[in-house]
């Protein structure tokens, strides 16, 4: 619980300092361990103003927190990028190292250090709101003796400030 509160404090601090965009998502998890409990996941992300931009691509810092229906949670921070395609479509991606807490031994991903990678495609409406469909993977990248991984398919809503 103390790690969740620390993560919440991080997000509040991060958003007050430099948030440009909030992302809220709802997804379905699939643990690669057959005994683990698959189910829903909810997440929130904060994206800072990009430190790199050209006509189509932007890259900046981001932080994320997510929790599964079983009570597993992940808090991480890293890089997020967006590539603008034609007709308001975009591709999004991120790599966020962070902390993972399993609710049971079946949902253990091998260590507390895990990396979440995400790739999605989305659409920007005239209002500025954006919706996307993304897949993410949480893994320790082989840094622990076991590395079962957690895959999630997500529907995401983005709002710029």
What distinguishing features does this structure have?
161 residues, 11% helix, 59% strand, elongated
Task: Please tell me about this protein's structure.
The chain has 161 residues and is mostly beta strands. It is 11% helix and 59% strand. The chain has one helix and nine strands; from the N terminus they run αβββββββββ. Strands 1-2-4-5-6-7-8-9 form an eight-stranded antiparallel β-barrel. β1 (19-31) and β2 form a beta hairpin. The longest helix is centred in the N-terminal third of the chain and has 17 residues, at 2-18. The protein is elongated and about 45 Å long.
Write a brief caption for the model:
This protein has 161 residues and is mainly beta.
SSE blueprint and pairings:
Elements (H helix, E strand, L loop, with lengths): L1 H17 E13 L7 E10 L3 E2 L3 E12 L4 E12 L4 E13 L11 E12 L5 E10 L10 E11 L1
Antiparallel strand pairs: 1-2, 1-9, 2-4, 3-4, 4-5, 5-6, 6-7, 7-8, 8-9
- How does the overall form come out from the CA principal axes? elongated
In DSSP terms, counting alpha (H) and pi (I) runs of 4 or more, how many helices? 1
Name the strands of the widest sheet in spatial order: 1-2-4-5-6-7-8-9
Q: What is the H-and-E element order?
A: HEEEEEEEEE
Find the count of extended strands (DSSP E, 2+ residues): 9
Uncertain regions: pLDDT < 50 for 5+ in a row?
A: none
Alpha carbon gyration radius: 16 Å
Largest sheet data: 8 strands, antiparallel, barrel
Strand content: over 45%
- What percent of residues adopt helix (DSSP H or I)? 10-25%
Mean pLDDT level = 89
| Structural class by helix and strand composition | mainly beta
């Amino acid at each position: 619980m103390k790690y969740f509160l620390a993560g919440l404090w991080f997000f509040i601090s991060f958003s007050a300092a430099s948030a440009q965009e909030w992302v809220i998502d709802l997804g379905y998890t699939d643990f690669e361990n057959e005994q683990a409990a698959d189910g829903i996941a909810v997440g929130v992300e904060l994206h800072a103003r990009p430190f790199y931009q050209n006509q189509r691509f932007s890259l900046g810092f981001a932080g994320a927190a997510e929790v599964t229906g079983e009570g597993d949670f992940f808090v991480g921070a890293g890089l997020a990028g967006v590539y603008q395609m034609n007709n308001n479509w975009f591709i999004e991606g991120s790599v966020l190292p962070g902390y993972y807490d399993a609710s049971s031994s079946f949902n253990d991903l091998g260590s507390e250090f895990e990396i979440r990678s995400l790739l999605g495609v989305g659409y920007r409406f005239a209002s500025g709101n954006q919706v996307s469909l993304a897949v993410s993977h949480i893994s320790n990248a082989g840094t622990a003796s076991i590395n079962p991984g957690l895959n999630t398919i997500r529907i995401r809503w983005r709002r710029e400030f």
